[in-house]
Amino acid sequence: MSTALKSKKNKISQNSIARLSLYLRELNLCELEHKKFISSSELARATNLTDSQVRKDLSLFGNFGVSGSGYAVGKLRAEVKTILGKDKPIDVILVGVGNLGLALLSYLDFQREGIRIRTAFDVDERKVGRAISNVQIRNIAEVENYIKKEKMKIAILAIPSHSAQQVTDTLVKAGIKCILNFAPKVLKTANGTLIRNVDLSREFDFFTYFIRQNNNA
Amino acid sequence: MSTALKSKKNKISQNSIARLSLYLRELNLCELEHKKFISSSELARATNLTDSQVRKDLSLFGNFGVSGSGYAVGKLRAEVKTILGKDKPIDVILVGVGNLGLALLSYLDFQREGIRIRTAFDVDERKVGRAISNVQIRNIAEVENYIKKEKMKIAILAIPSHSAQQVTDTLVKAGIKCILNFAPKVLKTANGTLIRNVDLSREFDFFTYFIRQNNNA
DNA sequence: AATTGTGAAATTGTTCACAGCA
DNA sequence: TGCTGTGAACAATTTCACAATT
Question: Which candidate, A24, A65, A201, B122, has a CA 20 to 30 Å from the CA of B34?
Answer without folding.
Answer: A201
